[in-house]
Amino acid sequence: MSREQRARIDAMLRQRPRPEGPRSVAAIRAGFAALMAGMIVPAGLRTRATALGGRPAVLVEPAEHPRPGTLLYFHGGSYLSGSPGTAMAVTGNLVSRTGFRALSLDYRLAPEHPFPAAIDDAVRAYRALLDDGEDPSSIAFAGDSAGGGLTVTACLAARDAGLPLPAALVAFSPGLDMTRSGESMRTKADSDPLFTREGMEHTGAMYLAGQDPRQPLLSPAVCADLAGFPPVLLQAGTHEMLLDDSTRLADRARAAGVDVILDVTDGVPHVFQAYAGVLDEADEALDRAALFLRQRVRATP
Predict the structure, then answer these.
(1) Facing residues of 141 across strands?
(2) What distances in angstroms separate CA 13 from CA 16, 134, 192, 235, 240, one per listed residue?
(3) How far apart are CA 169 and CA 51, in angstroms?
(4) Extents of the domains making up the chain
(5) How far apart are CA 180 and CA 184, in angstroms?
């Protein structure tokens, strides 16, 4: 554990310029790409462009000693920005630690494609894996931020469509409540170096496009029935306004009889796992996530 590392990352994030008013979509996308470009992607990976369920995707594989198993990965970016490229540090670290391949989906983004386009793309990608003959016990969903939310909402939509469910879900700092009603939205406002309520409401409105946020596929932490879900790992930091999205979903999961692990790390920001290689807590959290996945993804060569 390194207090100095955490303080350095917090200071770096707080030095980013804060706009006086709502940013344009182009500015949001450019700023997010610039932030994520500084993350460390581990060595020893092979990547290539592919397609899955009618959408572009990136296949990420270990260069040596692969293990059977597939991670369907959903990138973050508030449903407005991001790509498989911006998530490569986290995706690559999961691949290198588990030995599984990952298919990182380039799902459609708002405001051009608001809710439920991202969920529809995620379910189609999962259906494509099943149609290709993959056993659901060999597949796990994983994602960060908005993509962490997609791990849950895509699983809900897949369950309701009658599909067999994946072996496990891993969500890093997931967004799970578009009502923004968690207490941490208020209590963590000063400690969160990335987000403000105004910024979240600005981006959220573009994804919602007028829809009522109080529905399971938008706010599963508030109103989803999680019965029948596979094991879930939720990782979050104490310095993020979305913390209660994870804590409340964990409560709902336990009440539904779901095997859930809530893994909260002190003093770290939103999607701190992206700082692997410069933050000890990030590497340790990714090690725990990889162990969770290796124990639950069952595949035969």
Answers:
(1) 72, 169
(2) 6, 41, 9, 20, 12
(3) 22
(4) 3-18+45-296
(5) 9
C-alpha angle with apex 77: 94 to 38, nearest 5 degrees? 60
Ranges of H-type helices in 132-196: 146-160, 184-187
Q: Which residues are catalytic?
A: 145, 240, 270
Q: In CATH, which of 1.10.1040.10, 3.40.50.1820, 3.40.50.12280, 3.60.21.10 is domain 3-18+45-296?
A: 3.40.50.1820
pLDDT digits (tens, 9 = 90+) for 100-157: 999 999 999 999 999 999 999 999 999 999 999 999 999 999 999 999 999 999 999 9
Q: Give, in order, the Cα–Cα distances in Å from 205 to each of 20, 86, 147, 219.
A: 18, 23, 17, 14
Q: Residue 158: its pLDDT value, please?
A: 98
Residue 19 confidence (pLDDT) above 80: no
Strand bridging mode 101-105 / 260-265? unpaired
**The model's pTM:** 0.97
Angle between helix axes 88-98 and 280-296 (nearest 10 degrees) is 50
* Buried/exposed 243-263: b ≥16 CB within 10 Å, e otherwise: bbbbbbbbebbeeeebebebb
